[in-house]
UniProtKB/TrEMBL annotation:
Top-level taxon: Bacteria
InterPro entries listed in its UniProt record: Resolv_N, Resolvase-like_N_sf
Protein name listed in UniProt: Recombinase family protein
Domain Resolvase/invertase-type recombinase catalytic: 5-45
SUPFAM superfamilies: Resolvase-like
Pfam families, A to Z: Resolvase (PF00239)
Record region (Disordered): 53-84
Amino acid sequence: MLHPLTLGADLRERGIGLHVIEQGIDTSTMEGTAMFGMLSVLAELLMLTEIPRRARPPDPPPRPSSAPTVSRASTPNCGVWGGG
């Protein structure tokens, strides 16, 4: 598969402009070239994050906390917040 940035550079070297009608992108203009580049980078980022997410096994369920709990009855009253 040809990367959109590579495609855009190749077309630009040949003097060919790309006009994407539905998105209103025209690579013969500076704005269109910038937008095409940004969308290409976002598409690559999406591909890089989605493929590994699909390939990896699902995350295991969270384990119950093993931190000790402190009950209010066993905490000495130090009077800082009005006591217990």
